[in-house]
Amino acid sequence: MKLAVTAWDLSSPAALRDIPRQAATAERMGFSGFWLPENHFSGSAALSAPLILLAGAAARTQSIDVGTTSLVLPIRHPVAVAEEVATLDQLAEGRLILGLGRGFSDDLFQVFSVDPSQKRAMFKQSLSTMISAWAGERLPGAGPRDIRLSPRPFQSPNPRLWIAAFGPLALKQAAAFGCPYLASPMESLSALQENRVRYHEALDAAEQPRPEVVPIMRTIFITENSRLAEQIKQALIDEMNNRGSLGREDDPAFIVGSASYVADTLAKYQASLGMNYLIARGRIRGLSETDQLASHDALLQLSL
């Protein structure tokens, strides 16, 4: 199974400037991928331009994949984002994995003048346009002129595309494009099991093959200190309560505990979901970089 990691500090503009070092650290530790989310209007922790930050990460690394967990398409012009993605994929020499999303924040849609009821239709149209552009087809709206995307991506015909999905309609849309479904880090194992069934049904209905990669993103912290583990669990429970996404306390969306507990829990994910690509989410509030990296190193030592 491949192990990847998100940036563990996105708390300030200074932390954003530190993204290339974090990516280089993740590569040196032995992770397969380094991932960034996208969020807007959240103060000093906002991350509104993940492609720019990943360009810095790609320039400081040689082998690790770089990825977005959910680049929001409805707020972007499809040709502009196709150009930026192609350029980033060239810079990374094919190491880009493009995770895509529709967005969910009412504030985001209002500021960018997007009708929330149209976000799925806009996502479909944008991604279809981008795929055609990456394949070298004529760009829409060019009139009689033969205008095509340049440069095209390093990967052919396009970068690896994963779709973040939350809910039946989003799962159906991911399946229609035949893309791997990137599971939410806020849903429990039982919820992911139900989603996997819906996704497979949608793949079959769309006559799409099941993707080989099965990516899951989880907040993970490994410690043999039981008191610290309980503190981390409570912090994550408070975070999820604030987002209204806690779910069942006996089936949490996070995995916190000893190395043996985490290994056993991840084995359940592998057995029940077919997970073969794990993105370990950091950014646990109040946790030092030393403790977070110690947990990540312990994860790499597990036999998974």
- Net shape: globular
Stretches with pLDDT under 50, minimum 5 residues: none
What's the total helix number? 11
Q: Which structural category fits the helices and strands?
A: alpha/beta
Radius of gyration equals 19 Å
Number of strands: 9
CATH architecture of the domain at 2-165: Alpha-Beta Barrel
CATH fold node name of the domain at 2-165: TIM Barrel
Strand order of the largest sheet: 6-5-4-3-2-1-9-7-8
Compute the separation of the termini in Å.
6 Å
Mean pLDDT: 93
Structure in words:
The longest helix is centred in the C-terminal third of the chain and has 18 residues, at 226-243. 44% of the residues lie in helices and 16% in strands. The protein has a domain at 2-165: TIM Barrel (Alpha-Beta Barrel), CATH 3.20.20. It has a nine-stranded parallel beta sheet with strand order 6-5-4-3-2-1-9-7-8. The chain is built from eleven helices and nine strands. Helix 2 (19-29) crosses helix 3 (50-59). Strand 2, helix 3 (50-59) and strand 3 form a beta-alpha-beta unit. The protein is an alpha/beta fold.
List the helices and strands and how they pair.
Elements: E1 2-6, H1 13-17, H2 19-29, E2 33-36, H3 50-59, E3 65-72, H4 78-91, E4 96-101, H5 106-111, H6 119-134, E5 160-165, H7 168-176, E6 181-183, H8 189-205, E7 215-222, H9 226-243, E8 254-257, H10 259-273, E9 277-281, H11 289-301
Parallel strand pairs: 1-2, 1-9, 2-3, 3-4, 4-5, 5-6, 7-8, 7-9
